[in-house]
Amino acid sequence: MIITLVKLAGLAVTIACWLWALNLGLSETWNAVLLIWCAPLLSFPISVIGRRALDAQPSKRRAEWTDIFVHYTLGVALGAGLFPAFRLLLSRPTLTIPVARQAVWALVMVTGAGTVLTVANLAMRGLGAPFAVKLSSRLATDYLYAWTRNPMILCTFAWFLSLALWHASPGAVLWLGVSVFPGWIFFLKRYEERELEIRFGSSYASYQARTPFLWPTFRTPFQPGRFSSEWYRRVSRLDLRLPNRGRS
Fold first, then answer.
1. Rounded to whole angstroms, how far apart are CA atoms 187 and 168?
2. Of the candidates 144, 138, 82, 134, the residue with the CA atom closest to the CA atom of residue 111
3. Burial of 98 by CB count in 10 Å (0-12 exposed, 13-18 middle, 19+ buried)?
4. Which of 19, 144, 149, 236 has the most Cβ atoms closer than 10 angstroms to its Cβ?
5. Torsion over CA of 94, 95, 96 and 101, rounded to 10 degrees?
6. Residue ranges of domains in the chain, CATH in brackets
7. Structure confidence by residue, pLDDT tens digits, 163-173
8. Helix (H, G, I), strand (E, B) or coil at 35
9. How far apart are CA 83 and CA 71, in angstroms?
């Protein structure tokens, strides 16, 4: 009960900070520099602090409490940079070259849909939600999570880059590459992988060994790791029951 109330309080504070950042005037240079360029870089110290807390007491209970601190402080830091940055980005004109305009808009739609699908995949297979709102109660390893361990981050990266291209903003591409993406990658490698090891043990170690970190590898359906191990075992048992047509 206490941990649920703390999560709700953290969510409320995070949303309040996002609204503040979204409505903050960016006419002053220091506002733009501190929020848009510097706030996302807080991912680095937050991840280091969270990792040290996990290593000091590697238990599921400690991981759950540490997640609340790390996820919500990280959410505040990222939101403080992302919301005003995208407010400025969306105010820019879009591409005018017809062919490029159609191609990039299709890319925006595909990557945006992919991002939504990864959230649905986590909700259905991992029984969880992004950040500490609802930690996954089981390890999601199939569908999109069979191709990469971080499909949500990959699709989000691609969607953000597509929007930057759609609004023809080299500055936004530079900002994503310098201030946003490196911190997210560091968080995944430094903190989240350790947290998943603590919560899921050997199951995550096995999943980690057979599935790439970010860039997907598309395997054939009958190879281990393409879908869940349960699915593969069922297919294997089915294959054993099929007649061998090569023999008379």
1. 29
2. 144
3. exposed
4. 149
5. -120
6. 2-241 (1.20.120)
7. 999 999 999 99
8. helix
9. 17
How many CA atoms, within 13 angstroms, populate the side-chain half-sphere of residue 17? Answer: 19
Q: What share of the chain in percent tops pLDDT 90?
A: 62
Q: Which residue has the higher pLDDT, 133 or 59?
A: 59
Query: Which tokens sit at 208?
Result: 């980690």
Q: Are 225 and 208 in contact (CB under 8 A)?
A: no
Q: Supply the pLDDT for residue 28.
A: 57
> What is the average per-residue pLDDT within 124-140?
79
Residue 104 backbone phi and psi in degrees, to 5 = -70, -35
| 3-state secondary structure (DSSP) of residue 110 | helix
Alpha carbons 34 and 182: distance in angstroms, whole number: 17
Confidence band of 55 (pLDDT split at 50, 70, 90): very high
Task: Report CA-CA distances (Å) from 234 to 80, 132, 229.
Answer: 47, 33, 9
Structure tokens at 37: 């360029």
pLDDT at 151 over 80: yes
pTM of the model: 0.83
Lowest mean pLDDT among 13-22, 42-51, 144-153: 13-22
Q: What is the C-alpha separation between 62 and 56, in angstroms, rounded?
A: 9
Question: Would you state the pLDDT for residue 219?
Answer: 59
